[in-house]
C-alpha cells in the first residue's frame, strides 16, 4: 500500500468524480485510475462501485476512508521527523476566512520557520467543513472555534490558538467620531443605538443562516437599527469605513481596517470566540504551544 495512492484515494473519496479529482491532484484521470487500481489490488477489495462513468464509494471504501487520513498524517509526521528541515512538505490549512484574516500570516510564518522548504496552502471552509476536511485527510490543520470542541476525534491533537473579541466599530467620519478621534471613542448605549448597523445573516464561523444580526451582539437586550445586510466581510468593512453604518466586528478587523472602536458606557457584555488549532500530527500542534 502506497501513501501517495492513499492520498489520491482520499481526494477521490471526497469528490467521487475522476475529473474533479484530477484537477485537485494535478494528474490525469488515467493516472488516478492506475493509482486506484494499485490500491485496490494491494487491499484485494474494490473501494468504489462503478456506475457508468461515475464512481461511488462503497462499504469497503468507507471503512478505508476512516483510517486512511490517520495513516497519511502519521506518514507525513514520520517523514518530517526522519528528513528533518531538509525535506519539502506541503501543509494544507482549512479554516473560515474570517479567522484566516487574522491567523493566516501567523500560521504561515510558523510553518515556514519550522521548514523553509515548505509550501503552505490555505483553503477557506466554514468550521464544520474545515474539521471534516481534516478528518478525511484533505487538510493537515483546521482552525475552528471551541463550539466544535466536542466534535474533535479523540485521536486528534489540539491547542488553544487565541481569543477573538468582538468590538463595535465606526469609520473615522462617522457622526459618533466626527473625524477627530483615533483609537476609541466612549459613547452611551442611547447614543449608539440610534445609528444604523450593518450585519451578516449567515454566521461567518459555521455558515448557518441565522438571520440578520447573527454577529454575536445581544439584540434581545440592546436592539439595533439593522439597516444593511452583508455576508462578505470585506464589503462589510468598507461600508463601516465609509461611515454609512456601524458594525460588531472582530478586534483584529477593527485594527487592520483602521476603524474606531466605540466603547459603550456601563456595557459589560463582550462576545468572545475561543479558537482551536487541530491536527492529527502532534509535531504541528507542538509548534503553536506556549
From TrEMBL:
Q: Where is the HTH lysR-type domain?
A: 1-58
Q: Which Pfam families match?
A: HTH_1 (PF00126), LysR_substrate (PF03466)
Coiled-coil annotated spans: none
User: What GO molecular functions are on record for this protein?
Assistant: DNA-binding transcription factor activity; transcription cis-regulatory region binding
Q: Which UniProt keywords apply?
A: DNA-binding, Transcription, Transcription regulation
Q: Which domain of life is it from?
A: Bacteria
Q: Which InterPro entries match?
A: LysR_HTH_N, LysR_subst-bd, WH-like_DNA-bd_sf, WH_DNA-bd_sf
Similarity remark: Belongs to the LysR transcriptional regulatory family.
Q: What is this protein called?
A: DNA-binding transcriptional regulator, LysR family
